[in-house]
Write a structure and sequence with these properties.
Blueprint: E1 4-10, H1 20-27, H2 33-41, E2 45-47, E3 50-51, E4 63-69, E5 85-88, E6 92-97, H3 114-122, E7 145-151, H4 154-166, E8 170-178, E9 185-189, E10 192-194, E11 202-204, E12 212-220, E13 224-231, H5 238-245, E14 270-278, E15 285-289, H6 294-305
Helix pairs in contact: 1-2
Length: about 300
């Protein structure tokens, strides 16, 4: 018998007149609209306690109860992998993730991930995201470095997830992009969705999900520009896609960029240096920063000297 995991969310004014299946897909970005259509038809989604159709148009202040089937149990083992712990208490742990580390297990990566390391270090992690992503509220790409927050219990998980959805948490990145950005500051407000020509890529497209990135130029090197990017939303590959849409793909990004860079770094030069949030238990605002990794600093030194 398959066990289930139940989640309850409330609709708000932003969800008014949205289809139920589309709304759920916008809330749970790692799951598709088709996935939720199947759940709704199976009666695993209740709105105000009643079974409904996938095309139900929502109103504010409705209660949606979703019963997720527990994913098939996989043998995700704790692994003694060193972690750069930025902060830790009974509710949360913040890690400075190195380049090349995958955040959670997936096809082809069932070991060596941040989750494997956290299971060894913490023992207890929130179970909201199932056996593959215990404790994981958000993620950064394999080759992006910097702060990732994980939660040790479901209360903390729901609190941080709510803050991320409401855009009340703070996330800032250092990004080295190709080309000379003429403006000192700017905002990219372009929806992001799956690239229809390449399912492994994302793209700016009118039917995508709302995505907003604010950038500030920190230093110019002629053919490269160091920027600070602050996320208002958190879409997959958001900074990489938005900066590419401006004609300034990230240095080292072999997925969205073309050509070669004069330094040898595996992956995009993107570093999540700041994370700020309201603590789930104390409700005090906390903010943490981490320095640039050595390989990123060496690239900047090279550009300054040349």
């Amino acid at each position: 018998m398959t066990s289930e995991m139940t989640d309850i969310i409330m609709t708000d004014t932003e969800s008014m007149d949205m289809r139920l299946d589309a709304f759920l897909a916008s809330v749970y970005e790692d799951k598709s609209r088709t996935f939720f259509q199947k759940l709704i038809k199976e009666g695993s989604v209740l709105v105000d306690g009643k079974t409904v159709r996938p095309g139900l148009m929502l109103d504010p202040d409705q209660t949606i109860e979703i019963s997720f089937p527990e994913p098939e149990s996989l043998n995700i083992l704790p692994e003694d992998i060193p972690l750069d712990v930025v902060y830790e208490d009974e509710d949360v742990i913040l890690i400075n993730k190195p380049r090349g580390m995958v955040v959670h297990p997936a096809a082809g990566h069932y070991s060596g991930t941040l989750v494997n390391a956290l299971l060894y270090h913490c023992h207890d992690l929130s179970g909201i995201n199932g056996v593959l992503r215990p404790g994981i509220v958000h993620r950064i790409d394999k080759d992006t470095t910097g702060i990732v927050i994980a939660c040790k219990n479901d209360m903390a998980h729901r609190s941080i997830a709510t803050q991320l959805k409401a855009h009340t948490s703070k996330r800032a990145y250092y990004a080295l992009v190709r080309g000379n950005i003429k403006e000192d500051t700017g905002t990219v407000d372009r929806p992001i969705g799956r690239d229809p020509k390449n399912r492994k890529k994302m793209a700016c497209r009118p039917d995508g999900k709302n995505a907003v990135t604010h950038f500030t130029v920190l230093e110019r090197f002629g053919n490269y520009t160091l920027t600070e990017c602050r996320l208002e939303t958190g879409r997959t590959h958001q900074i990489r896609v938005h900066m590419t849409s401006l004609g300034h793909p990230l240095a080292g990004d072999e997925v969205y960029g073309t050509g070669k860079d004069p330094f040898s770094v595996q992956g995009q030069l993107l570093h999540a240096y700041l994370f700020g949030f309201e603590h789930p238990s104390t409700h005090t605002y906390m903010e943490f920063t981490v320095p640039l990794p050595d390989d990123f600093e060496k690239c900047l030194t090279f550009l300054r000297n040349h």
